[in-house]
Predict the 3D structure of the following.
Amino acid sequence: MIQIEPVTLQEAQFLVDRPIDEINKAIERGEVTTRIELVTTPAQAKRKRVRSAVQRGRATNARGYAPPKTSTQKVRMLGPEGLVYLALGKDLQESLTPMARRRLVEAIQASSATDKVTIGFVQVQLKEARAKLARRYKALRDVHTGIDKRAGTEPMFRGTDVKVYQIAALAEGQGVDETLEDYPGLKRKQVLRALDYARAYPKKGRPYPARSLKRAIGNLAASGVFAVDEDAPPLRPDDFR
């Protein structure tokens, strides 16, 4: 069995397949608890002039990025017991009273190795929720494989200039097979990994288009937008004034 380590609330969304607002409500109600941990991440890299950086021997690549510094921030983390509770699903939790929910959380904490717990006259099966968490946690660990994330830039597939979020948007909008046709240099597992990455770490800011430019133009052509009416009179210079 995979040992599940504490995760951020953002990662918890991916693991339990529930929106962040439901997770926050469970925290506010005291059903699951979080802990604060110090997390060190790359700070925003400062872009320097390529020529001067190379001359001074401080540039790390052809684009002239200086080595990124790190920053430490406080992050709320959610442990495995809370994840198991959330993975049981919203329907079960809403069917229980607030007291029963708290007892369920306590029972999960006290029986980390069992597949079921009993709350009053209700028996709650934990095996499926634990198995689901294990699968999703493995996917979360694997999601960084083959993806480079340089400070100040978007994540890209290693050895390419293809953006992970862009591929995820295409795969979500037009399908995996169509995305592979548009990007024959990628493998299916890379496209699927891009989908998982985007779900685990949603993109901030403006989203990417859900269809490639080539397919968008093809759809317009198929709809007859670019068709020429042979019976129409020829255009005259005055028509453009």
